[in-house]
Specification:
Helix content: 55-70%
Structural class: alpha/beta
Shape: flat
Strand order of the largest sheet: 2-1-4-5-6-7
Oligomer: single chain
Distance between the termini: 28 Å
Largest sheet: 6 strands, antiparallel
Strand content: 15-25%
């Protein structure tokens, strides 16, 4: 969800902030006041491309900052993400939580949590892949199980096809390539490197090389601590002297106790040093063997590295080439048998997924139609059309294409949404779909523009009710001209345009409440703030 957006020098906006409510927030104002600039800011946060035309006239750059948080967490929790977009001279810079990021990364993260509903080029509902995802989400557990089984079968078929391709490649491999693989395999297997062996050897080798010096140092440390007249004896003598004075001044007793405790620590260190010196074993033959082993492994890494993991991977690759060349016919038969079985399983999984989706589709369309009826869209409806794809076009999402078709009236031909629906119709269809999906949808924030285009009377009240229902499970931001929608919101912002000091128009954005909100609703009702309009607005807000 969006916690706050701060915009500077974008289009007509010089400096503005928006802190939408968790539920429903409305943005109102006169036509041409600059509401679309706020939508541009949201698009930038979603990962849209920016160009120099978005920068306010007279400014060198524009910036949009947004703080977003997970719906399950508070805004102050670790789930908070801070995004900043700066655009200047046609170039854009993105930071996420202070770190540089790409526009595509922004679209893949923040863009998935915010849905801009109203402008065709940013409308998820018009993308077939999103339509299939929405249908699957609504289908629930039965579709989810079928889709999981299909994807598992898809992965197996892909792996089997790759194995066949590898066998075919091996069959056509040149004798020179096979000979090279045999040489590589023999050289690496002769050394027989083990995972983690080189790291362990390099950790132990310095200790072997310096065994004599380490033993000498350990014996010297033990003698200095525990030998006659060593640190332990001298500390004990000092403690005895201080204890003899403790009866005169208790501070000496405290110091004596500290020295006694220090003696225990020194004794432990002395014992450890003696044990290390006794265990140290300098064996020239073992040292030479370890150094030779290290040189052997380093030689392999120079040839096939740079890491030992790379050497082991090269060994496995060489072994595969040799094995395939030695018995390619048998391996090819096995690979093709695996592929045939995988394709059969995939075909069955595809049929089951098709059946589940086609069973769910009419119920989904009917549920959406019920919401469209609430929005007074007459006999308009949607239906789901499935198109089977040839095997070469199957994807991990399925073996057919699912597309939402829009029928504006009962006697009209259903066609793809993008071809016949107006911006207002698309927004209301999206509103109906989002209401049906509820909490199943990935987008936590829905921004509606043009949803009230051509709407009035009873339809306006119905639209407000549907938006309010949707705001119970999602954060909803609506740019609206309808008073019925405005009074249903938990937060209300007004956009106004005025002449700037430099002669360039400036759009301002500010939250309103109380009597100021009453006056704005009255203006939306009748275009003025007359007494009757104010009373009507007050009744709507209180009701």
């Amino acid at each position: 969800m969006i916690d706050e957006i701060h915009v500077k020098d974008l289009a007509l906006i010089k400096d503005a902030s928006l802190a939408p409510a968790r539920g429903m927030t409305v943005i109102t104002g006169e036509t041409g006041a600059g509401k679309t600039a706020l939508l541009s800011a949201v698009r930038l946060l979603m990962g849209a491309r920016a160009d120099s035309s978005v920068v306010r006239e007279g400014a060198k750059a524009c910036s949009v900052e947004g703080r977003l948080f997970d719906d399950a967490a508070d805004a102050a929790d670790e789930g908070t993400v801070v995004v900043r977009r700066v655009s200047a001279d046609g170039r854009s810079r993105v930071t996420v939580d202070g770190s540089l990021a790409s526009v595509s990364e922004l679209a893949a993260t923040v863009g998935r949590t915010v849905d801009l509903c109203g402008q065709h080029e940013h409308q998820r509902l018009l993308k077939q892949a999103e339509q299939a995802r929405m249908l699957d989400a609504w289908g629930g557990e039965s579709v989810a199980r079928a889709l999981e089984a299909y994807r598992s079968a898809w992965d197996e078929a892909r792996a089997a096809a790759e194995e066949v391709a590898q066998c075919e490649e091996a069959q056509h491999a040149s004798a020179e390539k096979v000979d090279e693989a045999r040489f590589v395999l023999a050289r690496i297997e002769e050394a027989a490197p083990q995972p983690g062996e080189y790291e362990e050897l390099m950790d132990e080798l310095p200790k072997r090389e310096n065994a004599e010096a380490l033993a000498l140092a350990a014996r010297g440390a033990h003698e200095a601590l525990a030998g006659d007249g060593g640190a332990i004896d001298r500390a004990a003598q000092a403690a005895s002297m201080l204890e003899s004075l403790a009866g005169v001044d208790e501070r000496y007793g405290t110091s004596a106790q500290a020295l006694r405790e220090a003696c225990f620590v020194l004794e432990d260190v002395g014992r450890d040093a003696r044990a290390y010196a006794e265990e140290a074993d300098f064996d020239p033959a073992e040292l030479a063997a370890a150094q030779e082993r290290a040189a052997t492994l380093q030689g392999l890494m120079r040839a096939y590295g740079p890491r030992m993991e790379d050497v082991l991977e090269r060994r496995d690759e060489a072994r595969r080439i040799v094995e395939l060349s030695s018995d390619s016919s048998a391996l090819m038969r096995a690979a093709r048998a695996r592929l045939e079985a995988a394709e059969s399983a995939l075909a069955r999984a595809a049929e089951e997924l098709q059946a589940e989706r086609r069973a769910v589709a009419p119920r989904f369309a009917e549920a959406v139609h019920a919401q469209m009826a609430r929005l007074e869209m007459g006999s308009a409806a949607i239906e789901v059309q499935f198109t089977e794809l040839p095997r070469a076009q199957w994807t991990r999402a399925g073996s057919e294409r699912a597309e939402f078709l829009f029928r504006a009236g009962s006697g009209m031909q259903p066609r793809p949404l993008a071809r016949i629906a107006s911006g207002g119709e698309v927004s209301r269809v999206m509103l109906a779909v989002k209401t049906v999906l509820g909490a199943l949808d990935d987008a936590e924030t829905l921004v509606f523009d043009e949803v009230d285009a051509g709407v009035g009377g009873a339809t306006a009240r119905a639209l407000a009710d549907v938006l309010a229902d949707l705001a119970k499970s999602r954060q909803v931001i609506v740019v609206t001209h309808l008073a019925q929608v405005a009074v249903a919101a938990q937060a209300h912002y007004v956009v106004a345009k005025s002449e700037g000091e430099d002669g360039v128009p400036v759009s301002t954005l500010r939250p309103i409440e109380g009597e100021e909100r009453v006056r704005e609703v009255a203006r939306m009702l009748s275009g003025d703030e007359a007494g009757a309009s104010l009373e009507h607005a007050r009744e709507m807000l209180e009701g």
